[in-house]
Design brief:
two-stranded antiparallel ribbon, single chain, 2 strands, 1% strand, disordered C terminus, mainly alpha
Length: 268
């Protein structure tokens, strides 16, 4: 199947989400509660400090902006992907994809890109508007950092997709992805910087987490937006992120080839 044909799966996912528009309110409310809780924690940590006071070189307005960027803006709902793979494996419906002229991971990418775009427009951006009106959000540190953030954003999406799909395909051997979802969420919460930025980590842990692919999902894009990386560092870490993405996509292609043969052997 040609690459352009996969856009139909993206459109179908968008149309499917539009058919259940009532879920927008639940999703938006959940994101608002989550972000308000995170911001309240940082406000309590900074206490009565002024907006220019810094901890680890970071001001409270920067932490408010970071909470939104590293949260719903970058950290999309990969659990939907894991759940889809889990259901397809346990029900045996995944065998249908072997009968079609398509690549299953590519289908997942196209489909969940549609889910991501729907949630971005219908939930994330309205939540960002409300947070901005209530707390205020900082603009990018510079034009360069703003443009760099736009480059880091799809890199973040692809890295999270590759990691989630790799774990999802493990269901071909484990016959379930539910326990993997819990495990992956725990790792992501700690090492991606989605909850606590790496600049608040102990030195050794920050150095360790900063060289793992999880950091490119939340921490580095948000840090670039806020100007915590200079132009040279921004370009360097972007290149390293691309190397991680290439390695993960190669691993994904290899694992899918193994999973396909395992499915054929089990199915006869």
């Amino acid at each position: 199947m040609r690459a352009a044909a996969y856009s139909a799966f993206t459109i179908n996912a968008l149309q499917a989400r539009l058919a259940y528009r009532h879920t927008i309110w639940a999703g938006a409310f959940g994101d608002l509660v989550f972000i308000f809780a995170r911001i309240a924690i940082w406000i309590s940590i900074y206490g009565a400090a002024t907006s220019t006071a810094m901890f680890a070189g970071v001001t409270l307005p920067e932490m408010v902006t970071y909470s939104l960027l590293a949260g719903p803006l970058l950290y999309w709902d990969y659990s939907r992907l894991l759940g889809e793979v889990d259901t397809a494996v346990r029900s045996g419906d995944v065998a249908v994809y072997l009968l079609k002229p398509l690549h299953y991971p590519a289908y997942l990418l196209a489909s969940h890109l549609g889910h991501f775009l729907f949630e971005l427009v219908a939930i994330t951006l309205p939540v960002a508007l409300i947070i901005g009106l209530v707390f205020g959000l900082l603009p990018p540190a510079s034009l360069f950092h703003g443009l760099a953030f736009l480059a880091y954003w799809p890199l973040s999406f692809m890295l999270l997709f590759a990691l989630a799909t790799l774990l999802g395909l493990a269901a071909f051997w484990l016959m379930t992805a539910q326990s993997i979802d819990w495990f992956f969420n725990a790792i992501m919460t700690l090492l991606s910087g989605g909850l606590v930025p790496l600049w608040f980590f102990p030195g050794w842990l920050a150095a360790f987490a900063g060289h793992l692919p999880f950091a490119w999902i939340s921490y580095y894009p948000a840090a670039v937006y806020l100007g915590k990386l200079d132009p040279t560092q921004t370009l360097l870490y972007f290149a390293l992120g691309l190397l991680w993405l290439a390695a993960l996509l190669l691993a994904l292609a290899w694992l899918w080839s193994k999973a396909r043969h395992r499915l054929i052997l089990q199915g006869g």
